[in-house]
């Protein structure tokens, strides 16, 4: 605890020093560009010292980890017992209008198709609840971008894409479903470099 206080005091001292420089800059004329640069540098240093809160979720990227690559070769998908022709060969645009898919959101940009029903005696997960799921994410060209046989996250904390949070709240324990998500429920217009392109 004591170590945590020291940097805080140091940062406060530096902030006060910046404020003093700021006061002297206001008094001097605009020809003192050197002082203005120092003031700007001081503000920039202060910005860089601020740290955002962060969370960690374990994803396995098949493009970087050797053990995952070996696992991918032995099993192309995580759910081999289910026929995957529909989502493997049908354009996503057609699936967004298919009648045998359930809408999770009113805008019809997040849909699911249940392949195996879950336990009807168990309630749906809710916000703030920790869930564990097996998932595989693919792009429309069927490039696998995420694969995890044990993804753990808390609903509502933003650790995973919105599509997963919304979908898992509509599922029951043991349910297996296909999830179809528009980019706004995934990584948005910016995508996620290098594997998910921007729109």
Give the SSE layout.
Layout: H1 2-27, H2 33-49, H3 66-74, H4 85-89, H5 92-95, E1 102-103, E2 110-116, E3 130-138, E4 144-154, H6 162-168, E5 176-181
Antiparallel strand pairs: 1-2, 2-5, 3-4
Helix pairs in contact: 1-2
Structural commentary:
The chain has helices spanning 2-27, 33-49, 66-74, 85-89, 92-95, 162-168; strands at residues 102-103, 110-116, 130-138, 144-154, 176-181. With 199 residues, it is α+β, with helices and mostly antiparallel strands. It has two domains: 2-49; 66-185, Chitinase A, domain 3. The strands form two sheets. It has a three-stranded antiparallel β-sheet, with helices on one face. Strand 1 (102-103) and strand 2 (110-116) form a beta hairpin. The two termini are 46 Å apart. Mean pLDDT is 69; it is low at 1-31 and 45-75.
Number of strands: 5
| Rounded mean pLDDT score | 69
Instruction: Report the CATH C-level class of the largest domain.
Output: Alpha Beta
What is the radius of gyration? 25 Å
In the CATH hierarchy, what is the architecture of the largest domain at level 2?
Roll
Shape: globular
Number of domains: 2
Widest sheet: strand order?
A: 1-2-5
Q: Kindly report how far apart the N and C termini lie.
A: 46 Å
Task: Report the uncertain regions.
Answer: 1-31, 45-75
The secondary-structure element order is: HHHHHEEEEHE
Oligomeric state of shown chains: single chain
What summary fits the major beta sheet?
A: 3 strands, antiparallel
DSSP helical segment count: 6
**CATH fold assignment of the largest domain:** Chitinase A, domain 3
Protein name: peptidylprolyl isomerase
Keywords: Isomerase, Repeat, Rotamase, TPR repeat
GO cellular component, one term: endomembrane system
Pfam families: FKBP_C
